[in-house]
Amino acid sequence: MSKEIRQLKPKEVWNKFADLNAVPRPSKKEERVIQFMLDYGKALSMETFKDEVGNVIIRKPATTGMETKKMITLQSHLDMVHQKNADTNFDFDAQGIQMYVDGDWVRARGTTLGADNGLGVATIMALLESTDIPHPALEALFTIDEETGMTGAMGLKAGVLKGEILLNLDTEEDDELDIGCAGGIDVTAIGEYVEEKVPNNTIAYQLTIKGLNGGHSGIEIHKGLGNANKIMNRLLYNAIEKFEIGINEIKGGGLRNAIPRESFSKIVVDALSKNDFETSIAEWSIAIKKELSIMEPDLSIALNIINVPEKIMKLDAQVKLVKAIYAAPNGVYAMSASIQDLVETSNNLARVEVKNGTIHIGCLTRSSVDTAKLDLANSLKSAFELAGYTVSFGGNYPGWNPNPNSDILKVLESQYEILFNEKPKVAACHAGLECGILGQNYPDMDMISFGPTIEGAHSPDERVSISSVQKFWKFVLEILKNIPEK
To answer: Boundaries of each Peptidase M20 dimerisation domain copy (predicted)?
Structure first.
């Protein structure tokens, strides 16, 4: 399986990606990949160290004739999003990613691929190991925990880095140069509810939402993709309005930065309403599928009879729950007034868990305008507090303000046009890049972000274009030849 990947060109990049993907590297559990990277740098006899939060820094001297060029900091994050299909048997803590070639794409079998940001890491590793690539002095910065809090970037202290220019290799369209990004904040609502015994003469069902695309809750939030938590809530809301139902549990979504693909609930209904209930669920499901048919052709909504549970939520608690979730904004909230076609502010209703008297709702709110980010977070807070839940904010990180006069931007624009005979798109993205955070302690560092084409990041449909990686590698090598003088 990895043999097929290792034969792809450029081999130096794909071999390092295969090596990296053999190492389990979930966010907040990066001990093995940190040690892997420390061992790698030391094996190359390069200056290698780990800072106090776990970021790994490796430095390589300039090649002959490039000593007068500015030092470059190459930056990517070591962790990856863990998502898998419900029917995929895979242990992210113990197994390496199972990859395969599909035409011009590399994919994983039923899981996320880790191209985000593994291709960036592999590219940097290939440059560190190279013996025939001209380059200025290089400083590799491998950050941790980008996907679940950006704590690596936040914990990097001033004075550690020596580079004057930072190349962040973590965007996902190979014709785009990013010079700005959104900031984010986690909004978490916690509630409790009283359970009661299930009435007699009831029938129980599992309601299942599956088959959605999912994806990156920043880069792909504008696509109108279905959110499994919102679809489930819509069905439950309608059912509560028409029938006497009871909710036993709900489990939907998971990671804050992944659009939820699946949701499962266990509910009960009066046995006398069985036929009418099943007919209504079917009708509502047909309507939802029709609405989402273009973007979500594989959406599946299933209702299956299960054993009757012992307890359910009290009616008042479940009414408050479904109304609060209905009121919570999801998707694009506002478009940028200053940058055409850029999402300014959005929210991802990422996680809904209801079980054994406890409610947990998790959201990730993003915006390129910090005040708008807080405004939407307060809107969510208000909806959940009206339901009686306790709301907390966490993981707040800043956006990255665009600098259209950046010197390194001019270099990349020029070299891209020379290489590919077209102008690149210069943009800000709605994802959370680490540049904004790093810029707080390194305000004078000139930064830019770019990368190969990756689709479906943060979902098991994640794939990376082979031809795009070739294009990206060619671009990186040309950039290094044209770094400005000190």
So the answer is: 209-291
Mean pLDDT of the residues in the chain: 96
Amino acid making up residue 38: L
Q: Per DSSP, what are the bridge partners of residue 485?
A: 69
d(C-alpha 249, C-alpha 280), whole Å: 21
Nearest to 332 by CA among 321, 343, 316, 320: 343
Question: Do the first three CATH levels of 2-182+399-481 and 185-395 match, i.e. the same topology?
Answer: no
- Tell me which of 30, 79, 220, 434 is the catalytic residue: 79
113 burial level (CB within 10 Å; 0-12, 13-18, 19+): buried
- pLDDT single digits (tens) 331-348: 999 999 878 888 999 999
Domain locations in the chain as residue ranges? 2-182+399-481, 185-395
DSSP line for 100-165: EEETTEEEESSB---HHHHHHHHHHHHHHH-SS---S-EEEEEES-TTTT-HHHHHPPTTS---SE
HSE at residue 60, side-chain half, CA atoms within 13 A, is 26
- pTM over cut 0.85: no
Q: Which of 189, 309, 302 is nearest to 246 (CA)?
A: 309
Residue 455 CA, distance from chain mean position:
12
* 101, β-bridge pairs: 106
Closest CA to 250 of 360, 106, 85, 380: 360
Single out the catalytic residue among 30, 139, 145, 146: 146
Q: Is the peptide bond before 233 cis (omega within 30 degrees of 0)?
A: no
Cα distances (Å, whole numbers) of residue 372 to 152, 380, 386, 455:
25, 13, 21, 28
Mean pLDDT of 131-151: 95
Record the tokens describing residue 309, joined without a space.
Answer: 């549970």
* CA distance linking residue 77 with residue 80, whole number of Å: 8
For residues 262 and 227, what is the distance between their CA atoms, to the nearest angstrom? 8
Domain 185-395 adopts which CATH fold?
A: Alpha-Beta Plaits (3.30.70)
Q: Is 91 tagged catalytic?
A: no
Q: Quote the Cα angle for 241-245-250, to 5°.
A: 100
Q: CA Rg, the chain, in Å?
A: 24
Q: By C-alpha distance, which of 205, 336, 226 is closest to 274?
A: 205
Contact indicator for 248, 266 with CB cutoff of 8 Å = yes
Confidence bin at 86 (pLDDT 50/70/90): confident
79 is catalytic: yes
What is the C-alpha to C-alpha distance for residues 209 and 402, in angstroms, rounded to an integer?
A: 39
pLDDT-derived band of residue 1, with 50, 70 and 90 as boundaries?
A: low
Span 2-182+399-481 CATH architecture = 3-Layer(aba) Sandwich (3.40)
